[in-house]
Amino acid sequence: MPEIVGRLLAARGIEIETAAHFLEPTLRALLPDPSLLIDMDVAAERLAGAVTLGETVGIFGDYDVDGACSAALMVTWLRGLGCTVVHHVPDRMREGYGPNRTALLGLVEKGARLIVCVDCGTAAAEALSALTDVADAIVLDHHKSEGPPPAILATVNPNRLDCASGLTTLCAAGVAFLTVVAATRTLRRRGYFEARPEPDLIALLDLVALATVCDVMPLGGVNRALVYQGLRVMGRRARPGVAALLEVTQAREKLSAFTCGFALGPRINASGRISEADLGLRLLLCEDRIEALALAERLDGINRQRQEVEAGMLEHAMHAASLQADAGNAVLVVAGEGWHPGVVGIVSGRIKERFNRPACVAGIASGIAKGSGRSVPGFDLGSVVIAARQAGILATGGGHSMAAGFSLPAGRIEEFRKFLNERLAAAAALPGAVDLLVEGALSVPGATLDLARHVERLAPFGAGNDEPVLVLQRARVIRADRVGREGSSIRVFLEGEGGGPRLKAMLFRAREGARGGALSEALLSRERLPLHVAGYLRVEAWNGAENPGFIISDAAVA
């Protein structure tokens, strides 16, 4: 491989011995034994028993992408093996997060004698106690545990305090996938497949890939294999719901983690945030392509509605966060009367990105603040939110290191902010913006299609495996034009100082903030001064032809 790619691998801690598995990650090499997870064998035996007896099984999910994908995975596997499956996704506004007694008993009334909670349930001991003597319960989750698991049949969660599996970076869909691997293995040992075909577990990996990326799990180890192989499965477009969503979002290019995180994920999430909680799950389970397209178009419309709601909140929230950042707060906590609780997570993510601080945003209604938080690497927000609940500040609260949810009386918001600032005080020393980590430099003529293809082999990119930022040294702008809606992007053609082949580059979000304005000015300047241009080298496919392309993230006069 080119030396620069060798450097990129080395910078990621990849050794010669493991480079092949990193570049072409396989389940054979990287999938762990599911039995490493505590309670897994018990869960697998019970699920195998449900399949053998043809029982009715209830699936209780969550309203985000990981919850929808986990539920769809379990429903698909169970129905494929002949079980009757009923499912429920709680309404964010009426029911809140996680299992509740009414919904659980509703599944029992529909005939379920086994209920599987996915992406929730670890902290729901009280609600799950409603199932005592009426149904068995299994939890497949990944959220942080603060004590002993619920008194149920099995709680499979790598973040249980007593689980030594080391698989703490799995999302709930990853846990669910390992569970069906274990249950299928149990059925095989029982001879269940001697007279019938085994389920195609690989076909479920598109759901696992989508959930892993959208829940911002690190893309290393087994997660890398799950996403790498899952994107291949997704590329076949065999699942009608996913194919329809790809069509609606006009995802024509090669599918990537970016496709999952920025095209598919927000639309599935939008329904759970401001509309029908189970619409994403229904799309993922839909088997009719025409119906799937109609559902996908509904989700796309709901996502546009979500963007309008978000825009109305963002300006006020950003101003309040700016005042707190200027005052030296380590954690930014803002709240507003009437702010939609389904959008606060997105707004907290935008604040986190803008100020490089953990951020929490809450909407207030009837004296109660309900909110979500997002964190930055190295600061475990979920654990601190759990601690705040244990301290009596919060009514509810939980999550994982990078994201959390909470509720509290509106009068205690300031107390909550002080608590977070004390526990995460070190975040105050973070720079006001994320430093740009440059991993390589090259000339414009050096940005070849061959090099772009080699860099692409490091994908999928995401948490724990950032796309490498490269710098084109002393590039000259030959032509620059505003393109896109209201000139929101800039298309640039670059050339090296000594001439040679031209390289097309794009700057997106060119009108956003001071940084976007300064970048636009530098690229559109008539002076045509040589620039150092930072960004991402990619393979661009158009009309059957491939060319190198460059996505600009920053620039400076050389």
Helix- and strand-based class?
alpha/beta
Poorly predicted regions: none
The proportion of residues in beta strands is: 15-25%
The amount of helix comes to 40-55%
Count of separate DSSP helical elements: 19
* Strands, count: 16
Give the overall shape, derived from the CA principal axes.
Answer: globular
Average pLDDT works out at: 93
Strand arrangement within the widest β-sheet reads 2-1-3-4-5
State the major sheet.
Answer: 5 strands, parallel
Distance between the termini: 30 Å
Radius of gyration: 24 Å
What are the salient characteristics of this protein?
single chain; alpha/beta; 19 helices; 16 strands
Plain-language structure description:
- By secondary structure, this protein is of the alpha/beta class.
- It is built from 19 helices and 16 strands.
- Strands 2-1-3-4-5 form a 5-stranded parallel beta sheet, with helices on both faces. Strands 6-7-8-10-9 form a 5-stranded mixed beta sheet. Strands 12-13-14-16-15 form a 5-stranded mixed barrel.
- α18 links the parallel β11 and β12 (469-483).
- The protein is globular, with a radius of gyration of 24 Å.
- It starts with a helix and ends with a strand.
Quick synopsis:
The chain is α/β, with parallel strands linked by helices and 558 residues long. The chain has helices at 3-11, 16-23, 27-30, 40-53, 65-80, 101-109, 125-128, 172-189, 205-214, 221-235, 240-248, 257-274, 279-285, 289-326, 344-355, 381-390, 413-423, 449-456, 513-524; strands at 56-60, 84-88, 114-118, 136-140, 154-156, 332-337, 359-365, 368-374, 396-400, 403-409, 438-442, 469-483, 489-496, 499-507, 531-542, 545-557. Strand 12 (469-483) and strand 13 form a beta hairpin.
